[in-house]
What we know:
single chain, alpha/beta, 9-stranded mixed β-sheet, 11 strands, elongated
Amino acid sequence: xxxxxxxxxxxxxxxxxxxxxxxxxxxxxxxxxxxxxxxxxxxxxxxxxxxxxxxxxxxxxxxxxxxxxxxxxxxxxxxxxxxxxxxxxxxxxxxxxxxxxxxxxxxxxxxxxxxxxxxxxxxxxxxxxxxxxxxxxxxxxxxxxxxxxxxxxxxxxxxxxxxxxxxxxxxxxxxxxxxxxxxxxxxxxxxxxxxxxxxxxxxxxxxxxxxxxxxxxxxxxxxxxxxxxxxxxxxxxxxxxxxxxxxxxxxxxxxxxxxxxxxxxxxxxxxxxxxxxxxxxxxxxxxxxxxxxxxxxxxxxxxxxxx
Length: 307
């Protein structure tokens, strides 16, 4: 079957010119002459039968069709370059996985476990970029995403399949010194949790994306806490972990994201009363059969989540 595809060289010239809206800057980037870039783009316009640029006295401006096509060509060239580099790097063995991920989960849970993946599948390489919101896979070069959300948010993400990994249970944590001060104990008993009502008197660290988390936790514990909404707000769990470890207050954190701090003794559980969060962590992928690399990664990820 004959494929209706334009010249890759013409597309590269068009993408650079579209990005800069300048033939001159595109030529400099591609180490070509301006006339060579102009000829490639004219040939592409003739091949398409569509005007991509409007010529003005001051240069060129993208037409609406050119702007739309430029966005798609840029995404296609980026994916082609990535796949080419992967083939060159692996010489046909294994493969690479481009993963979008919420930052704290990727940094604190996934990356520390990647050596296990490397030992089990040495030919698989995982590239990770940060994404916190749903997106259309057709508009990106991502193969899958690690996402934290509610079942309702997952259901509203079009064209995907979701694999549940972990629920986001949270517990109150703080520095050992703050817990010792709250309990009025000696250092030998500093790590022992305190009753829920004792936390109502301590500084509370808030997460801006979960503004009523403390209110829900105290309600579940049956404790009246007038100051449940007070306290400094931080956007990321990683920020909360650092603030709590420095004694600024008590934070509601998923233990799976602070394994290192707990192991080092920088954070301790302030009250042994977990709360099941509304969100969970999912592996999101396009709604189609997984390619072999993604299938191997998904199976390994599920095993990690189960242990």
